[in-house]
Write the structure tokens for this entry.
Amino acid sequence: MLIDHTHRSWIVGTFAVGMGAVTLYFVLDYFTPGGGLRGGDTVGLWYGVAGSALMVFAGLISALRRLPSWWFLGQRRVWLRGHVWLGLLSGVLILCHSHFRMGGPLEFLLMVVVFLVIGSGILGLLLQQFIPALIREQVESEAPLSQLDEILLRMRDQSDDLYSKAVGELADEVARLRVQGFYLETARPWLSEVLPVDSPIAHAPISREIFAQTAKIQGGPNLMAFLTRLEGYCNERRQLARQQQLHKILHTWLLIHVPLSVMLLILGIAHVITALYW
């Protein structure tokens, strides 16, 4: 999600409601006798209910992805914006509910998880602002990652055809073995789904030097066509690997955010149950 001008009303609204909620809480706390407000008071409970409701709304985004695009559910981009800004607002309301204190062991753990969920969400939002731009800047041959296996298979098949033609016209046995060793041991493994971590082709300057040295082998036009196309495929594979790496960074935060969100839901239910009994 890109934070642009379309989020302006959400930002202003979230800031205004958050500041209003905190101001109202402090005013009511000041005029409440007996040491001020508590989480179990009527005002504190309403802050807790409102904050919990906003958290539940923010958590519904995962369920929304599994539902059809029914018109009465509204636009998904609106839900995404609500997930971000109402999720932040829920943290403010929960802080007011807790009277800005950590409380007992359960409440302490619950508040820590709240902060971690919000923090991991902010981290994910920041990554979404910068990683896509890095992909556009560093990856010229960007491709849908869902089609990566198919793309690599096509590269290998076409390279194999060109390789057969190039080797077939090489009369010199030494030259044939040299091309064969380079392709089968170095270049073709680089076009596989799992990259060899120690491949010299992983580094663009070294790869250029290797192809330049291989191109000095005396051969016919098929050899030059093969090496030219193969070098292009190897360069494209390097960019696809970079794209995979950046996509992994972009989505790794979800491995933290989603489990923490589930933990927050469980702890929130436990907090409500214990509050009703004690």
About this structure: The chain has ten helices and no strands. Residues 145-250 form one domain.
